[in-house]
Amino acid sequence: MNQSYQLSVESAESQRSLVSWLEGSPDWIIQKAAKPPRSGEMGTGELITVLISSGTLSALVRSLQLWIKYRQPKLYVRVTDPDGKEVVVDATNAGDVDTVLKALGEK
């Protein structure tokens, strides 16, 4: 069964970098779509949706951690599960896969 997770980052440059990084893996499918602006925002950006099969969430989180490790320390990725639960992976928790998986309900 496939699950979808939405990813967002702070800039268009970071988004291009993240999409390029994730497209290098056969473990998931990347989809991009326009996202509605948040309150106070002027335009729309792109929303990154990652479709994964069950059992590959840990691989996705590890991939995000590696990507963050090689980026600037203020960088973050917001992961939203199908139920709307969000967890932010950033420099403070990028090394702790178990904490991120637990926050997303994965054991």
Which CATH architecture would you pick?
2-Layer Sandwich
Largest sheet strand order: 2-3-1-4-5
Low-confidence stretches: none
Structural class by SSE content: alpha+beta
String of helices and strands: EHEEHEEH
Output the keywords:
single chain; 107 residues; alpha+beta; Alpha-Beta Plaits; 5-stranded antiparallel beta sheet; 3 helices; 32% strand
Explain the layout of strands and helices.
Blueprint: E1 2-8, H1 12-22, E2 28-35, E3 45-53, H2 57-69, E4 76-80, E5 86-90, H3 97-103
Antiparallel strand pairs: 1-3, 1-4, 2-3, 4-5
Structural write-up:
The chain is α+β, with helices and mostly antiparallel strands. The protein has one domain: 2-Layer Sandwich (Alpha-Beta Plaits), CATH 3.30.70. The chain is 29% helix and 32% strand. A five-stranded antiparallel beta sheet has the order 2-3-1-4-5, covered by helices on one side. The radius of gyration is 13 Å and the shape is globular. The model has no long low-confidence stretch (mean pLDDT 81).
Task: Write a compact overview of the structure shown.
By secondary structure, this protein is an alpha+beta fold. The protein is built from 3 helices and 5 strands; from the N terminus they run βαββαββα.
